[in-house]
Amino acid sequence: MYTVKQLSRLAGVTVRTLHYYDEIGLLVPSSVSDNGYRHYTDESLLRLQQILFFRELDFSLTEIKMIMEQPEFDLLAALHQHRQALHDRMKRLRTLIQTVDSTIFHLTGEVEMSKKQLFAGFSAEEEQRYADEARQLYDEKTVNESYQLWNSYSAAKKDQIKAEGLAIYTDLADLIARAPADPDVQQVIVRWHQHIRYFYEPTVEILRGLGQLYVENPDFTRSIGAVHPDLPEFMRQAITVYCDNLG
After folding, report:
1. Residue closest to 51 by CA, chosen among 15, 16, 27, 20
2. Which pLDDT tens digit goes with each residue over 229-244?
3. Rounded distance, CA 170 to CA 229, Å?
4. What does DSSP say about strands 38-40 and 2-3: parallel, antiparallel, or unpaired?
5. Integer Cα distance of 196 and 213 in angstroms
6. CA-based R_g, the chain, Å
7. For residue 205, what are the CA distances in angstroms to 23, 158, 226, 244?
8. Which of 61, 141, 146, 231 is the most exposed place for a label (fewest CB within 10 A)?
């Protein structure tokens, strides 16, 4: 048996929420002692898990109550449905993250995107629903600052920056037979780090994330891979070594 406080700690919900679920008949305690303390069983834990899954999928409490009170409600089947729904959402969010990252670099001139690619991950039905999630993932301040900084450069400066970036990728491709930790390779990664500063001041986490992005995002993989097919993965490894040394 679990008290309301114990269940609250286990599930990560507030005691007030559990009291409210009791009030509306969504999660009624298995028993209530003479002193008014609510007690819950393992079955209650599974029911609460289902409620939280449905809430994660944006069902209202009224809808959840109606679904779970149906005589034909099947717990195992519901879990399979939750898994698929969450997997689909995860895929959409991954696409949105890639779209956000690609848009940042599209605005700063590092990657060319088609108009269609700007909306990858969105559909007419999903656009409004996922707008809030995209905004949470989108560092608007960084993007705005990058955009302003890039637009502050002259056309000649922009061409210089692009040429410098290409030279960095080319120099790394020439060293691809060496180990990622090779001093000459790491010296070019230092140049790459400095090059990123034309757009914004990156943290170690951002640098590490960029390395991962180069192998996961099709836009970057295609762009960098045009210099050498193995360059995206080589850069990821070299950047990881560099970030590890930064601490």
Report:
1. 27
2. 899 999 999 999 999 9
3. 12
4. antiparallel
5. 14
6. 25
7. 45, 26, 26, 10
8. 141
